[in-house]
Amino acid sequence: MEAAALNKEVDLLILGSGFGGSLLSLLLARQGLRVAVIDRAVHPRFTIGESSTPLADATLKELAQRYDLPELMPLTAFGPWRRRHPELMCGLKRGFSYFGHSPNAEFSPADQLLVAASSDDEHSDTHWLRSDVDAWLFERAADRGAMQFEGASYRLSREDSQWLVAGEASGVKFSLRAPMIVDATGAAGEVLRYLKIASQTHRLKTNSWAVYGHFENVTSVAEMLDRRQIDRRRHPFGCDDAAVHHVLDDGWMWQLRFCDDSVSAGFAIGQPADTPKPNADGIWRQRLDRFPFLRQQFAAARIVAPAGGLQMTSRMQRLTSLAAGPGWAALPNTAGFIDPLHSTGLAHTMFGVRRLAEILLQTGTSNQLLAELGNYSSTLIDELRLVDQLVEGCYAGLPSFRLWSAWCMLYFAAVTSMEQSPGGGVAAFLHADELRFLTVVGEARGELQRASDAGRGPAACDRFEDRLRQVIAPWNRGGLLDRECNGMYARTAKPV
Ligand SMILES: Cc1cc2nc3c(=O)[nH]c(=O)nc-3n(C[C@H](O)[C@H](O)[C@H](O)COP(=O)(O)OP(=O)(O)OC[C@H]3O[C@@H](n4cnc5c(N)ncnc54)[C@H](O)[C@@H]3O)c2cc1C
Prior knowledge:
It comes from Rosistilla ulvae. By secondary structure, the protein is α/β, with parallel strands linked by helices. It has 14 helices and 23 strands. It has 3 domains: 6-86 and 130-198 and 323-360, 3-Layer(bba) Sandwich (FAD/NAD(P)-binding domain), CATH 3.50.50.60; 90-128 and 207-312, D-Amino Acid Oxidase, Chain A, domain 2; 400-496, no CATH class. The protein has helices at residues 19-30, 54-66, 78-84, 130-143, 190-194, 221-227, 280-290, 292-297, 332-335, 345-361, 366-397, 401-419, 435-453, 458-471, and strands spanning 6-9, 12-15, 35-38, 90-93, 95-100, 112-116, 125-128, 147-149, 153-159, 162-169, 172-178, 180-183, 209-216, 243-247, 251-257, 263-269, 302-305, 311-312, 318-319, 324-325, 328-330, 336-337, 488-489. Flavin-adenine dinucleotide is lined by residues 15-21, 38-41, 47-51, 184-186, 188, 190, 210, 212, 266, 316, 331, 333, 340, 343-346, 349.
Protein backbone atom coordinates (compact mmCIF):
# COMPACT_ATOMS: atom_id res chain seq x y z
CA MET A 1 0.00 0.00 0.00
CA GLU A 2 1.38 3.44 -0.92
CA ALA A 3 2.22 5.69 2.07
CA ALA A 4 0.00 8.78 2.47
CA ALA A 5 1.62 12.02 1.25
CA LEU A 6 2.74 14.50 3.87
CA ASN A 7 0.49 17.50 3.34
CA LYS A 8 1.47 20.71 5.13
CA GLU A 9 0.71 24.38 5.13
CA VAL A 10 3.62 26.49 6.38
CA ASP A 11 4.51 30.20 6.67
CA LEU A 12 7.60 30.00 4.50
CA LEU A 13 9.20 27.67 1.98
CA ILE A 14 12.96 27.85 1.45
CA LEU A 15 14.44 26.14 -1.58
CA GLY A 16 18.12 25.29 -0.98
CA SER A 17 19.86 24.37 2.26
CA GLY A 18 23.33 25.77 1.71
CA PHE A 19 24.51 27.74 4.73
CA GLY A 20 22.28 30.66 3.62
CA GLY A 21 19.02 28.71 3.39
CA SER A 22 19.74 26.74 6.57
CA LEU A 23 20.71 29.83 8.56
CA LEU A 24 17.58 31.70 7.50
CA SER A 25 15.40 28.70 8.39
CA LEU A 26 17.12 28.45 11.78
CA LEU A 27 16.47 32.11 12.66
CA LEU A 28 12.86 32.04 11.55
CA ALA A 29 12.01 28.67 13.11
CA ARG A 30 13.50 30.01 16.37
CA GLN A 31 11.03 32.91 16.13
CA GLY A 32 8.14 30.48 15.80
CA LEU A 33 7.55 30.59 12.05
CA ARG A 34 6.58 27.32 10.37
CA VAL A 35 9.41 26.87 7.87
CA ALA A 36 10.03 24.07 5.37
CA VAL A 37 13.40 23.70 3.60
CA ILE A 38 13.77 21.63 0.44
CA ASP A 39 17.12 20.70 -1.14
CA ARG A 40 17.85 18.55 -4.16
CA ALA A 41 21.14 17.35 -2.61
CA VAL A 42 21.88 15.44 0.60
CA HIS A 43 24.23 16.67 3.34
CA PRO A 44 27.18 16.41 3.64
CA ARG A 45 28.18 17.40 0.09
CA PHE A 46 31.11 19.29 -1.45
CA THR A 47 30.51 23.03 -1.84
CA ILE A 48 32.83 25.89 -2.63
CA GLY A 49 32.84 29.36 -0.97
CA GLU A 50 34.78 28.89 2.23
CA SER A 51 36.59 32.01 3.36
CA SER A 52 34.92 34.20 5.98
CA THR A 53 35.70 37.83 6.84
CA PRO A 54 35.28 40.07 9.92
CA LEU A 55 32.01 41.37 8.47
CA ALA A 56 30.68 37.82 8.01
CA ASP A 57 31.67 36.82 11.55
CA ALA A 58 30.33 40.01 13.14
CA THR A 59 27.00 39.58 11.35
CA LEU A 60 26.75 35.93 12.43
CA LYS A 61 27.46 36.99 16.02
CA GLU A 62 24.81 39.70 15.85
CA LEU A 63 22.27 37.18 14.52
CA ALA A 64 23.16 34.68 17.27
CA GLN A 65 22.59 37.35 19.92
CA ARG A 66 19.51 38.97 18.43
CA TYR A 67 17.69 35.67 17.84
CA ASP A 68 18.98 33.97 21.00
CA LEU A 69 20.85 31.21 19.20
CA PRO A 70 23.90 30.55 21.43
CA GLU A 71 24.75 27.45 19.38
CA LEU A 72 25.98 29.77 16.59
CA MET A 73 28.47 31.70 18.75
CA PRO A 74 31.43 29.27 18.49
CA LEU A 75 31.39 29.63 14.71
CA THR A 76 32.07 33.37 14.91
CA ALA A 77 35.82 33.08 15.65
CA PHE A 78 38.65 30.58 15.29
CA GLY A 79 39.41 30.06 19.04
CA PRO A 80 35.92 29.06 20.23
CA TRP A 81 35.28 27.14 17.02
CA ARG A 82 38.31 24.87 17.57
CA ARG A 83 37.52 24.34 21.27
CA ARG A 84 33.79 23.71 20.92
CA HIS A 85 33.59 22.05 17.51
CA PRO A 86 36.84 20.29 16.66
CA GLU A 87 34.74 17.89 14.56
CA LEU A 88 33.81 20.72 12.14
CA MET A 89 36.81 21.37 9.92
CA CYS A 90 37.92 24.99 9.60
CA GLY A 91 41.09 26.93 8.88
CA LEU A 92 42.76 29.97 10.43
CA LYS A 93 42.28 33.16 8.41
CA ARG A 94 44.19 36.11 9.85
CA GLY A 95 43.95 38.14 6.67
CA PHE A 96 44.57 38.34 2.94
CA SER A 97 48.00 37.50 1.42
CA TYR A 98 48.94 38.31 -2.18
CA PHE A 99 52.02 37.18 -4.12
CA GLY A 100 52.64 38.38 -7.68
CA HIS A 101 54.09 36.04 -10.32
CA SER A 102 55.14 36.44 -13.94
CA PRO A 103 55.06 33.45 -16.32
CA ASN A 104 58.26 31.38 -16.37
CA ALA A 105 60.02 33.78 -14.00
CA GLU A 106 61.27 33.52 -10.43
CA PHE A 107 59.22 35.13 -7.69
CA SER A 108 60.30 38.65 -6.72
CA PRO A 109 60.12 39.51 -2.98
CA ALA A 110 58.87 42.99 -3.93
CA ASP A 111 55.59 41.47 -5.14
CA GLN A 112 53.94 40.85 -1.78
CA LEU A 113 50.90 42.39 -0.11
CA LEU A 114 49.54 41.28 3.28
CA VAL A 115 46.41 42.85 4.76
CA ALA A 116 45.50 41.81 8.31
CA ALA A 117 41.85 41.13 9.14
CA SER A 118 42.22 39.81 12.71
CA SER A 119 44.72 40.76 15.40
CA ASP A 120 45.14 37.32 17.01
CA ASP A 121 44.30 33.67 16.39
CA GLU A 122 41.65 33.50 19.12
CA HIS A 123 39.42 36.13 17.49
CA SER A 124 40.41 35.30 13.96
CA ASP A 125 38.23 34.65 10.93
CA THR A 126 38.05 31.15 9.55
CA HIS A 127 37.85 29.09 6.39
CA TRP A 128 34.78 26.88 6.54
CA LEU A 129 34.82 23.33 5.23
CA ARG A 130 31.40 23.83 3.73
CA SER A 131 30.42 20.15 3.66
CA ASP A 132 30.83 20.09 7.47
CA VAL A 133 29.42 23.53 8.25
CA ASP A 134 26.40 23.33 5.94
CA ALA A 135 25.45 19.89 7.31
CA TRP A 136 25.82 21.17 10.89
CA LEU A 137 23.67 24.25 10.27
CA PHE A 138 21.07 22.04 8.59
CA GLU A 139 20.94 19.90 11.75
CA ARG A 140 20.70 22.94 14.03
CA ALA A 141 17.77 24.23 11.97
CA ALA A 142 16.05 20.86 12.48
CA ASP A 143 16.70 21.14 16.25
CA ARG A 144 14.88 24.47 16.22
CA GLY A 145 11.89 23.04 14.41
CA ALA A 146 12.49 23.63 10.68
CA MET A 147 10.85 20.97 8.54
CA GLN A 148 13.40 19.55 6.08
CA PHE A 149 13.41 17.57 2.84
CA GLU A 150 16.80 16.68 1.37
CA GLY A 151 17.56 14.63 -1.70
CA ALA A 152 14.22 15.96 -2.94
CA SER A 153 12.78 15.84 -6.42
CA TYR A 154 9.83 18.18 -6.66
CA ARG A 155 7.65 20.41 -8.78
CA LEU A 156 7.17 24.09 -8.00
CA SER A 157 3.94 25.90 -8.82
CA ARG A 158 1.90 28.87 -7.69
CA GLU A 159 -1.88 29.12 -7.36
CA ASP A 160 -3.86 32.04 -5.93
CA SER A 161 -0.81 33.64 -4.26
CA GLN A 162 0.11 30.31 -2.63
CA TRP A 163 3.34 28.54 -3.49
CA LEU A 164 3.11 24.78 -3.83
CA VAL A 165 6.07 22.41 -3.71
CA ALA A 166 5.08 18.80 -4.29
CA GLY A 167 7.51 15.94 -4.59
CA GLU A 168 9.37 13.15 -2.89
CA ALA A 169 12.34 12.95 -0.52
CA SER A 170 13.80 9.76 0.99
CA GLY A 171 10.81 7.77 -0.25
CA VAL A 172 8.32 10.16 1.41
CA LYS A 173 5.87 12.02 -0.81
CA PHE A 174 5.19 15.58 0.30
CA SER A 175 3.03 18.51 -0.66
CA LEU A 176 3.83 21.87 0.92
CA ARG A 177 2.02 25.20 0.64
CA ALA A 178 3.03 28.67 1.76
CA PRO A 179 2.30 32.31 0.92
CA MET A 180 6.04 33.13 0.77
CA ILE A 181 9.07 31.41 -0.77
CA VAL A 182 12.81 32.15 -0.54
CA ASP A 183 15.11 31.04 -3.32
CA ALA A 184 18.38 29.93 -1.71
CA THR A 185 19.39 27.59 -4.54
CA GLY A 186 22.38 29.69 -5.67
CA ALA A 187 23.22 29.37 -9.36
CA ALA A 188 20.17 27.14 -9.96
CA GLY A 189 17.82 30.09 -9.28
CA GLU A 190 14.77 27.82 -9.12
CA VAL A 191 12.21 30.52 -8.26
CA LEU A 192 13.80 33.09 -10.59
CA ARG A 193 13.47 30.60 -13.43
CA TYR A 194 9.89 29.72 -12.48
CA LEU A 195 8.96 33.42 -12.51
CA LYS A 196 10.98 34.04 -15.70
CA ILE A 197 12.81 36.95 -14.09
CA ALA A 198 15.11 38.51 -16.68
CA SER A 199 18.86 38.29 -16.22
CA GLN A 200 21.03 41.40 -16.38
CA THR A 201 24.33 39.55 -16.46
CA HIS A 202 25.20 41.48 -19.64
CA ARG A 203 25.62 44.61 -17.47
CA LEU A 204 28.43 43.04 -15.43
CA LYS A 205 31.97 43.97 -16.37
CA THR A 206 33.84 41.07 -14.78
CA ASN A 207 34.28 38.05 -17.03
CA SER A 208 36.04 35.13 -15.36
CA TRP A 209 35.81 31.39 -14.89
CA ALA A 210 37.42 28.98 -12.44
CA VAL A 211 38.88 25.52 -11.98
CA TYR A 212 39.28 24.22 -8.43
CA GLY A 213 39.42 21.39 -5.90
CA HIS A 214 40.74 20.38 -2.48
CA PHE A 215 44.30 19.03 -2.21
CA GLU A 216 46.70 17.46 0.25
CA ASN A 217 50.50 17.83 0.31
CA VAL A 218 50.58 21.41 -0.93
CA THR A 219 53.83 23.03 0.21
CA SER A 220 53.15 26.16 2.25
CA VAL A 221 54.00 29.61 0.94
CA ALA A 222 56.13 30.18 4.05
CA GLU A 223 58.29 27.19 3.18
CA MET A 224 58.56 28.34 -0.43
CA LEU A 225 59.74 31.78 0.73
CA ASP A 226 62.19 30.22 3.21
CA ARG A 227 63.68 28.07 0.46
CA ARG A 228 64.31 31.29 -1.44
CA GLN A 229 65.69 32.96 1.70
CA ILE A 230 63.02 35.63 1.52
CA ASP A 231 62.63 37.35 4.87
CA ARG A 232 59.15 36.83 6.37
CA ARG A 233 59.67 38.94 9.48
CA ARG A 234 57.81 41.87 7.94
CA HIS A 235 54.63 39.80 7.55
CA PRO A 236 51.95 40.97 10.02
CA PHE A 237 50.66 37.36 10.33
CA GLY A 238 51.62 33.89 9.13
CA CYS A 239 51.22 34.29 5.39
CA ASP A 240 49.50 30.88 4.99
CA ASP A 241 46.99 31.61 7.79
CA ALA A 242 45.09 33.64 5.25
CA ALA A 243 43.18 33.69 2.03
CA VAL A 244 46.31 33.32 -0.10
CA HIS A 245 46.17 34.89 -3.56
CA HIS A 246 48.78 34.18 -6.21
CA VAL A 247 48.35 36.99 -8.70
CA LEU A 248 49.15 35.89 -12.26
CA ASP A 249 49.22 37.58 -15.66
CA ASP A 250 45.57 36.86 -16.53
CA GLY A 251 43.97 35.91 -13.23
CA TRP A 252 44.82 34.54 -9.83
CA MET A 253 44.92 31.43 -7.70
CA TRP A 254 43.35 31.08 -4.26
CA GLN A 255 44.71 28.80 -1.53
CA LEU A 256 42.86 28.27 1.75
CA ARG A 257 44.57 25.97 4.24
CA PHE A 258 42.46 23.98 6.71
CA CYS A 259 43.57 22.70 10.12
CA ASP A 260 44.11 19.18 8.72
CA ASP A 261 46.58 20.75 6.22
CA SER A 262 44.31 20.14 3.24
CA VAL A 263 44.11 23.13 0.93
CA SER A 264 41.23 24.48 -1.12
CA ALA A 265 42.85 25.80 -4.29
CA GLY A 266 41.57 27.19 -7.54
CA PHE A 267 42.46 29.35 -10.49
CA ALA A 268 40.14 32.22 -11.39
CA ILE A 269 40.92 33.29 -14.93
CA GLY A 270 39.92 36.66 -16.31
CA GLN A 271 39.28 35.66 -19.90
CA PRO A 272 36.00 35.15 -21.69
CA ALA A 273 34.81 31.69 -20.64
CA ASP A 274 34.03 30.69 -24.22
CA THR A 275 37.75 30.68 -25.09
CA PRO A 276 38.38 27.07 -26.21
CA LYS A 277 40.07 25.16 -23.40
CA PRO A 278 41.07 21.56 -22.72
CA ASN A 279 39.71 19.59 -19.78
CA ALA A 280 40.08 20.72 -16.17
CA ASP A 281 43.15 18.54 -15.50
CA GLY A 282 44.85 19.89 -18.63
CA ILE A 283 44.16 23.50 -17.62
CA TRP A 284 45.42 22.83 -14.13
CA ARG A 285 48.71 21.31 -15.35
CA GLN A 286 49.24 24.03 -17.98
CA ARG A 287 48.79 26.78 -15.41
CA LEU A 288 51.09 25.19 -12.82
CA ASP A 289 53.72 24.65 -15.51
CA ARG A 290 53.83 28.38 -16.36
CA PHE A 291 54.60 29.48 -12.80
CA PRO A 292 57.66 27.84 -11.18
CA PHE A 293 56.58 28.85 -7.65
CA LEU A 294 53.18 27.17 -8.03
CA ARG A 295 54.63 24.15 -9.82
CA GLN A 296 56.91 23.55 -6.85
CA GLN A 297 54.12 24.11 -4.34
CA PHE A 298 51.99 21.44 -6.04
CA ALA A 299 54.82 19.03 -6.95
CA ALA A 300 53.62 16.37 -4.45
CA ALA A 301 49.99 17.51 -4.20
CA ARG A 302 47.06 15.14 -4.66
CA ILE A 303 43.42 16.07 -5.11
CA VAL A 304 41.17 14.86 -2.26
CA ALA A 305 37.80 16.44 -3.09
CA PRO A 306 35.38 16.54 -4.73
CA ALA A 307 35.12 12.84 -5.48
CA GLY A 308 34.73 13.49 -9.22
CA GLY A 309 38.00 15.47 -9.45
CA LEU A 310 38.64 19.09 -10.42
CA GLN A 311 35.58 21.26 -10.99
CA MET A 312 35.50 23.75 -13.86
CA THR A 313 32.96 26.55 -14.26
CA SER A 314 31.73 28.47 -17.25
CA ARG A 315 31.55 32.26 -16.82
CA MET A 316 30.98 32.76 -13.07
CA GLN A 317 29.18 36.10 -13.24
CA ARG A 318 25.40 36.30 -13.15
CA LEU A 319 22.91 38.93 -12.03
CA THR A 320 19.14 38.95 -11.87
CA SER A 321 17.07 42.03 -12.66
CA LEU A 322 14.84 41.49 -9.59
CA ALA A 323 15.74 39.81 -6.29
CA ALA A 324 12.32 39.93 -4.60
CA GLY A 325 8.66 40.57 -5.30
CA PRO A 326 5.20 39.78 -3.94
CA GLY A 327 5.49 36.46 -2.08
CA TRP A 328 9.11 35.73 -2.95
CA ALA A 329 12.74 36.71 -2.38
CA ALA A 330 16.16 35.44 -3.44
CA LEU A 331 19.24 35.25 -1.20
CA PRO A 332 22.33 37.13 -2.45
CA ASN A 333 24.06 34.11 -4.02
CA THR A 334 20.89 33.35 -5.96
CA ALA A 335 20.40 36.96 -7.07
CA GLY A 336 23.92 37.09 -8.44
CA PHE A 337 27.55 36.17 -8.16
CA ILE A 338 30.70 37.92 -9.31
CA ASP A 339 33.94 36.15 -8.38
CA PRO A 340 35.67 34.55 -5.37
CA LEU A 341 37.99 37.58 -5.23
CA HIS A 342 37.65 39.65 -2.01
CA SER A 343 35.73 36.77 -0.30
CA THR A 344 32.46 38.71 -0.41
CA GLY A 345 30.09 35.71 -0.66
CA LEU A 346 29.73 34.63 2.98
CA ALA A 347 29.45 38.18 4.36
CA HIS A 348 27.01 39.26 1.67
CA THR A 349 24.85 36.18 2.27
CA MET A 350 24.81 37.00 6.02
CA PHE A 351 23.67 40.53 5.17
CA GLY A 352 20.89 39.12 2.99
CA VAL A 353 19.80 36.63 5.66
CA ARG A 354 19.70 39.38 8.31
CA ARG A 355 17.61 41.70 6.15
CA LEU A 356 15.22 39.01 4.99
CA ALA A 357 14.69 37.72 8.54
CA GLU A 358 13.77 41.26 9.64
CA ILE A 359 11.38 41.70 6.73
CA LEU A 360 9.70 38.32 7.14
CA LEU A 361 9.24 38.76 10.89
CA GLN A 362 7.62 42.17 10.66
CA THR A 363 3.91 42.42 11.29
CA GLY A 364 3.16 45.39 9.03
CA THR A 365 0.60 45.61 6.25
CA SER A 366 1.03 43.77 2.97
CA ASN A 367 1.89 47.09 1.29
CA GLN A 368 4.68 47.67 3.81
CA LEU A 369 5.96 44.14 3.21
CA LEU A 370 5.97 44.72 -0.52
CA ALA A 371 7.85 48.01 -0.12
CA GLU A 372 10.43 46.28 2.10
CA LEU A 373 10.90 43.52 -0.44
CA GLY A 374 11.34 46.15 -3.15
CA ASN A 375 14.10 47.84 -1.11
CA TYR A 376 15.69 44.47 -0.43
CA SER A 377 15.81 43.74 -4.15
CA SER A 378 17.24 47.07 -5.28
CA THR A 379 19.84 47.21 -2.47
CA LEU A 380 21.01 43.68 -3.21
CA ILE A 381 21.42 44.38 -6.91
CA ASP A 382 23.28 47.66 -6.22
CA GLU A 383 25.61 45.75 -3.89
CA LEU A 384 26.36 43.08 -6.48
CA ARG A 385 27.05 45.74 -9.09
CA LEU A 386 29.51 47.45 -6.73
CA VAL A 387 31.25 44.12 -6.04
CA ASP A 388 31.50 43.74 -9.83
CA GLN A 389 33.36 47.05 -10.06
CA LEU A 390 35.63 46.23 -7.12
CA VAL A 391 36.57 42.92 -8.74
CA GLU A 392 36.78 43.98 -12.38
CA GLY A 393 39.37 46.69 -11.67
CA CYS A 394 41.73 44.06 -10.24
CA TYR A 395 41.62 42.00 -13.43
CA ALA A 396 41.96 45.21 -15.49
CA GLY A 397 45.17 46.07 -13.62
CA LEU A 398 46.84 42.81 -14.70
CA PRO A 399 49.53 41.87 -15.42
CA SER A 400 50.75 44.63 -13.09
CA PHE A 401 50.88 43.39 -9.49
CA ARG A 402 51.10 47.01 -8.30
CA LEU A 403 47.94 48.09 -10.12
CA TRP A 404 46.11 44.96 -8.92
CA SER A 405 47.19 45.65 -5.33
CA ALA A 406 46.31 49.33 -5.51
CA TRP A 407 42.82 48.56 -6.83
CA CYS A 408 42.30 46.10 -3.94
CA MET A 409 42.63 49.11 -1.62
CA LEU A 410 39.19 50.34 -2.67
CA TYR A 411 37.70 47.08 -1.37
CA PHE A 412 39.78 47.22 1.82
CA ALA A 413 38.85 50.87 2.44
CA ALA A 414 35.16 50.00 2.10
CA VAL A 415 35.23 46.84 4.17
CA THR A 416 37.54 47.96 6.98
CA SER A 417 35.59 51.20 7.46
CA MET A 418 32.45 49.06 7.89
CA GLU A 419 34.20 46.63 10.22
CA GLN A 420 35.73 49.32 12.37
CA SER A 421 32.69 51.56 12.87
CA PRO A 422 30.13 50.47 15.46
CA GLY A 423 26.83 49.81 13.71
CA GLY A 424 28.64 49.94 10.35
CA GLY A 425 27.15 46.57 9.52
CA VAL A 426 23.61 47.90 9.20
CA ALA A 427 24.38 50.04 6.16
CA ALA A 428 24.49 48.66 2.62
CA PHE A 429 27.25 46.16 1.96
CA LEU A 430 30.56 47.92 1.14
CA HIS A 431 28.90 51.38 1.07
CA ALA A 432 26.89 50.47 -2.02
CA ASP A 433 24.32 53.10 -0.97
CA GLU A 434 26.89 55.87 -0.61
CA LEU A 435 27.05 58.04 -3.71
CA ARG A 436 30.37 59.54 -2.66
CA PHE A 437 32.00 56.10 -2.53
CA LEU A 438 30.45 55.00 -5.83
CA THR A 439 31.74 58.19 -7.47
CA VAL A 440 35.24 57.53 -6.13
CA VAL A 441 35.17 53.99 -7.56
CA GLY A 442 33.95 55.23 -10.94
CA GLU A 443 36.59 57.97 -11.15
CA ALA A 444 39.33 55.63 -9.95
CA ARG A 445 38.47 53.26 -12.79
CA GLY A 446 39.24 56.07 -15.24
CA GLU A 447 42.61 56.67 -13.51
CA LEU A 448 43.35 52.93 -13.67
CA GLN A 449 42.69 52.97 -17.40
CA ARG A 450 45.10 55.88 -17.81
CA ALA A 451 47.77 53.98 -15.84
CA SER A 452 47.22 50.91 -18.03
CA ASP A 453 47.27 52.93 -21.24
CA ALA A 454 50.51 54.58 -20.07
CA GLY A 455 52.14 51.14 -20.00
CA ARG A 456 51.72 50.21 -16.29
CA GLY A 457 55.31 51.35 -15.59
CA PRO A 458 56.58 52.55 -12.18
CA ALA A 459 55.70 56.22 -12.82
CA ALA A 460 52.14 55.34 -13.91
CA CYS A 461 51.74 53.10 -10.83
CA ASP A 462 53.08 55.84 -8.54
CA ARG A 463 50.58 58.33 -9.95
CA PHE A 464 47.71 55.89 -9.58
CA GLU A 465 48.62 55.03 -5.98
CA ASP A 466 49.00 58.72 -5.08
CA ARG A 467 45.58 59.48 -6.52
CA LEU A 468 43.95 56.51 -4.77
CA ARG A 469 45.52 57.45 -1.44
CA GLN A 470 43.80 60.83 -1.69
CA VAL A 471 40.39 59.61 -2.76
CA ILE A 472 40.02 56.74 -0.27
CA ALA A 473 40.97 58.98 2.67
CA PRO A 474 37.39 59.25 4.08
CA TRP A 475 37.18 55.45 4.44
CA ASN A 476 40.84 54.66 5.08
CA ARG A 477 41.09 53.46 8.70
CA GLY A 478 44.08 51.15 8.35
CA GLY A 479 46.84 53.21 6.75
CA LEU A 480 46.11 51.76 3.32
CA LEU A 481 48.67 52.91 0.73
CA ASP A 482 50.82 54.61 3.41
CA ARG A 483 54.31 54.49 1.93
CA GLU A 484 55.96 53.30 5.14
CA CYS A 485 53.67 50.22 5.22
CA ASN A 486 55.26 48.99 2.02
CA GLY A 487 52.47 46.48 1.35
CA MET A 488 52.32 45.10 4.93
CA TYR A 489 49.16 46.25 6.72
CA ALA A 490 48.63 45.36 10.39
CA ARG A 491 46.31 48.23 11.37
CA THR A 492 43.56 46.95 9.07
CA ALA A 493 42.77 44.21 11.64
CA LYS A 494 39.32 44.49 13.18
CA PRO A 495 39.43 45.70 16.78
CA VAL A 496 38.99 42.89 19.35
C1 LIG B 1 34.57 29.24 -7.17
C2 LIG B 1 33.93 29.98 -6.02
C3 LIG B 1 34.68 30.35 -4.91
C4 LIG B 1 34.09 31.07 -3.86
N1 LIG B 1 34.86 31.46 -2.80
C5 LIG B 1 34.32 32.20 -1.81
C6 LIG B 1 35.09 32.61 -0.68
O1 LIG B 1 36.28 32.32 -0.56
N2 LIG B 1 34.49 33.35 0.28
C7 LIG B 1 33.18 33.68 0.20
O2 LIG B 1 32.68 34.38 1.10
N3 LIG B 1 32.40 33.27 -0.83
C8 LIG B 1 32.94 32.55 -1.83
N4 LIG B 1 32.16 32.13 -2.87
C9 LIG B 1 30.72 32.43 -2.82
C10 LIG B 1 29.99 31.40 -1.96
O3 LIG B 1 30.10 30.14 -2.58
C11 LIG B 1 28.51 31.74 -1.80
O4 LIG B 1 28.39 33.06 -1.33
C12 LIG B 1 27.85 30.81 -0.80
O5 LIG B 1 27.98 29.47 -1.22
C13 LIG B 1 26.38 31.16 -0.64
O6 LIG B 1 25.72 30.18 0.12
P1 LIG B 1 24.21 29.80 -0.15
O7 LIG B 1 23.81 28.86 0.89
O8 LIG B 1 23.41 31.04 -0.32
O9 LIG B 1 24.21 29.10 -1.58
P2 LIG B 1 24.86 27.73 -2.05
O10 LIG B 1 26.06 27.41 -1.24
O11 LIG B 1 25.03 27.86 -3.53
O12 LIG B 1 23.76 26.62 -1.73
C14 LIG B 1 22.71 26.33 -2.61
C15 LIG B 1 21.96 25.11 -2.10
O13 LIG B 1 20.83 24.90 -2.94
C16 LIG B 1 20.74 23.54 -3.32
N5 LIG B 1 20.07 23.50 -4.61
C17 LIG B 1 20.58 23.74 -5.84
N6 LIG B 1 19.62 23.66 -6.77
C18 LIG B 1 18.47 23.37 -6.12
C19 LIG B 1 17.12 23.20 -6.53
N7 LIG B 1 16.76 23.32 -7.80
N8 LIG B 1 16.19 22.94 -5.57
C20 LIG B 1 16.54 22.83 -4.27
N9 LIG B 1 17.80 22.97 -3.83
C21 LIG B 1 18.75 23.25 -4.74
C22 LIG B 1 22.18 23.05 -3.33
O14 LIG B 1 22.24 21.64 -3.16
C23 LIG B 1 22.77 23.82 -2.14
O15 LIG B 1 22.60 23.11 -0.94
C24 LIG B 1 32.72 31.40 -3.92
C25 LIG B 1 31.96 30.99 -5.03
C26 LIG B 1 32.55 30.31 -6.07
C27 LIG B 1 31.71 29.91 -7.28
